[in-house]
Amino acid sequence: xxxxxxxxxxxxxxxxxxxxxxxxQAPMAGGATTPELIATVSNKGGLGSxxxxxxxxxxxxxxxxxxxxLTNKPFSVNLFIPEKHHADxxxxxxxxxxxxxxxxxxxxxxxxxxxxYTPPFEDQMNIILEEKIPILSFTFGILSDDWIEILRxxxxxxxxxxxxxxxxxxxxxxxxxxxxAQGSEAGGHRGTFIGNAxxxxxxxxxxxxxxxxxxxxxxIAAGGIVDAKGIIGALTLGASAVQMGTAFLCCPESGIHPxxxxxxxSLSHDNTTLTRAxxxxxxxxxxNKFITRMESYKNNILDYPIQNxxxxxxxxxxxxxxxxxxxxxxxxxxxxxxxxxxxEKLIEQLDNDTIMLLKQSS
Length: 362
Fold this sequence. Notes:
Blueprint: H1 12-17, E1 23-25, H2 35-43, E2 48-51, H3 57-70, E3 75-80, H4 89-101, H5 121-130, E4 135-139, H6 145-153, E5 157-162, H7 165-174, E6 178-182, E7 188-189, H8 204-214, E8 219-222, H9 228-236, E9 241-244, H10 246-249, H11 258-266, E10 272-275, E11 283-286, H12 289-294, H13 306-320, H14 343-361
Parallel strand pairs: 1-9, 2-3, 3-4, 4-5, 5-6, 6-8, 8-9
Antiparallel strand pairs: 7-11, 10-11
């Protein structure tokens, strides 16, 4: 565990982002990252992150202003880079039928959908500028040169997401400040934007090593990190910080459904799988009936974000009916190690345990 490059808590990332701990609460879209969770993490010295990819611009503004009433510390906002997508009428009908056949217990009719399937990206970005957000993270691609120039002139720090060395090199060359290395263990959507996501499933240790040796900007490790051992492992390999998502899902401040939390806390082993069923994009979550049934219709799954829009009402209905069989319950491979702790206590425990383990190894 001895490593001359391992410094706790001061790293290149704490210096860059003006935090006191190299712990970033991962942006988890869909409501998990509440203002209370984000602010608490930032107040305790980490970096809270608002997952705003699915949010309309006005909602992003309101949420940012709410966070600012709860903390005067830095926090980040995360957005999704727009992607090309297409589905003809026949594909839409087949996909809708597949979803309908896969959730009979809800006794619910899947409605038809029309574009646009995502919030307006340019308007979302303008909110970042107007609200003077200090840090913007993004995934599913690279910001345009024009946006990078605008944001850098405003002093906004930029963090991209890579699942391979090729992606990391592209991000580095674009002129951003740091890269999240998303290992295959990570919960939620894969950030892959070069090639197929199925071919970009390096485990975190291998990915950190590749990126640390392949690019010059700081690397943030993400995927399966829930405790001090995971933190030290990532920093020992050369990461400058860790990004933790699943570890925060069972905090009382998290916005996920109570039954989703209960399921996470009941796990005794890894019960996650990779699926495109809910959104059309490869993502890791807890296996349930919908994922299993949609295996029979995998050829009818639409491109992201069309599939995501198609299953949206089903997922909302599942929440109303308290039925986890049809919720998207994203989680990393270490979800079975989750604890039910207030975010403040979780950060304190991670900090204290990391210090203790480092002392034991010195």
